[in-house]
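Please review this one.

:::
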Amino acid sequence: MSDDIDAWLERNNAYLAAALAHLRELLRAAIGPAAVPSQTIGTTALTEPARVGDAGAVNWVNRNPFRRRSPANAVPQVLLLPSAESMDATGVVAAAERLAEASQGDPPPALLMLAERLGLSAFERDILLLCLAAELDPGIQESFAAVQGSQGRTNPSFALAMTLFDHAAWDALSPERPLRYWRLVDVNQPGATPLTGAALRIDERIANFAKGLNHLDSRVAALIEPMPAESATLAPSHLLRVAEIERLALAAVPGRIALVGPDRESKRRLAAAVAAALGLPCYRLSAEAIPTGAELDSFLRLWTRESLLLPFALHIDAHDLPSGAEQGLRRLVRRAGGPVFVDLRDGISGLEIDGRVDIAKPSAAEQRVEWGARIGEVSDKDALAARLSSHFDLNFADIAAVAREAGAGEESEPLGERLWRGSITRARPSLAQLAQRIEVKPSCRDIVLPDAEMALLDQIAGQVHGRAVVYDDWGFRACMNRGLGVSALFAGDSGTGKTMAAEALADRLGLDLYRIDLSAVVSKYIGETEKNLRDVFDAAEAGGAILFFDEADALFGKRSDVKDSHDRYANIEIDYLLQRMEAFAGLAILATNMKSALDPAFVRRLRFIVNFPYPGQPERRRIWEHAFPSKVPLRAVDFDRLAQLDLTGGNIHGVAINAAFMAAAAGTPVTMELLLDACRIELRKLDRPVNEADFRRIRAVPGERR
């Protein structure tokens, strides 16, 4: 391959040398031999061929389905000559013969290849050669000035081209013709200068192409980035998608394919793998970087020109498409000059595509196999892989990153704990914008509930732990599309321990607990609330997080009769929640003190309903015992008598904290008198009567605890 490239570069250099020699003969014929320098081109670009490893060198013999090739029997293109009467027949004809000989070969020289790909006429190609000559041989500019009748006009112009070439055509000056449409030359037309006399300069990208250096235009390269192919890290189901997408791209050139789904990283890797299968490099363009206004048209022309000069595949990352960017995306895709893969979270109407492929994350079984391959040789590898794949929904890139980070962690910590913690943290950045992570404290283990309710919490934890066995080993996942998650409703009065129970479950399962921030999720704009909820559920599934909907009746309320558009869109939000809750594969907890306000459809989809009753006297005593940390000094505190006060767990904790502050201010331990004063404050806060007779019955007893 290296020899082929070197041979082509030598032929291309020989062609350029012959073309410039022919141009000199035309200039001599126009102004006389003495006015034209006789030296050859003095640039190393034409005498030292670029190597494969050189920056900018291109493999021109690359065989890919989008490379435009001339038929084998095509007649090589050569520069057209003026009539015999207007030139020195001996010198010009001899130069033309050498040029015709240098034009032979396949692939053809770069300038002829460029003319073919961009649709240049013979005259337009000759204009381009004039501008290229000024770059390659500065000495020839004196001859340009002599022909144009002014020493100051050393740049070529349309008038110079019309003087030298009898096959001149006025349409070459049109802004709709390839020469100006593709911005192959810059036209410097100051003031009242006529277009024919305007100074012309070849575009740097085009000049390098003619020399045999094919690289991305810097104006395009600034907006895109290369994407290396990583097909070895694709899931088996995704490898099947590679073949499907490749068939679609080949069946409808240029091949505009929409890749739709929630897993952005897998779609990127798929696009790069398909491009590699087509023999093309792949570049990524963020939808946020697509220019707007007048700059968009300029970018579209440059990008389409690049796709013709340097075939490549483009991956447009529109997964999180900015508001108002749809029109620019449609225009960009419509004018695609090569394979285009559009990364979408959902479809977009009006997008001109040749095919759509839905991309899901690797299945739980594929993730389990990948975990096993990444974990290495440990005694409990199979069990650990099953546990990780059942709790977390990660793509192969995330699995590889977690395994790599865990391998570099503290050796004293078990590998399973490092992998578990790394998997949890993968989704934290996505959830942090729409939900609040609750730091679970060890005190949550002291939750006090009746035996029946504690048994339900045990069942919830057991179902989360046992998902790998039931869903995967026993085959339930294969016959279920929905309902793979665990959803529970915690219903009870305020202060009865609903939030604390959620914290206790998170502590027991070793998972993050996120309280949904309604102010960040609910939006007045149509469709934004559903989008925010979708992002929350997707991130929670990936990181195995527990979603906690406090005051759930605000989101999961009953649907109402449609009287206006507000009712209709509110019902749509509830309908979306119904569907997404059922499809959620993790643990979701709804807490409310208004169970009757929930839509019945939600209640039907819940797997558990845990009622949090008002605590009785035995439960209140246990709550009082756990209300004070071990370091709090207590004096003469009787928990049995305190339990006689009709308070919830939340009220009891409030009383304990207030009494502790009162004791700290007084410089004494916490006493019954201080606790009773704090109880009076709590009851007044609740607008409940303070019965002093009840307080007189609660007398201080001897005893002290530290």
Q: What stands out?
A: Residues 617-705 form a domain with the Helicase, Ruva Protein; domain 3 fold (CATH 1.10.8.60). The CA atoms of residues 399 and 459 lie 29 Å apart. The chain has five domains: 2-211, 218-358, 364-426, 436-612, 617-705.
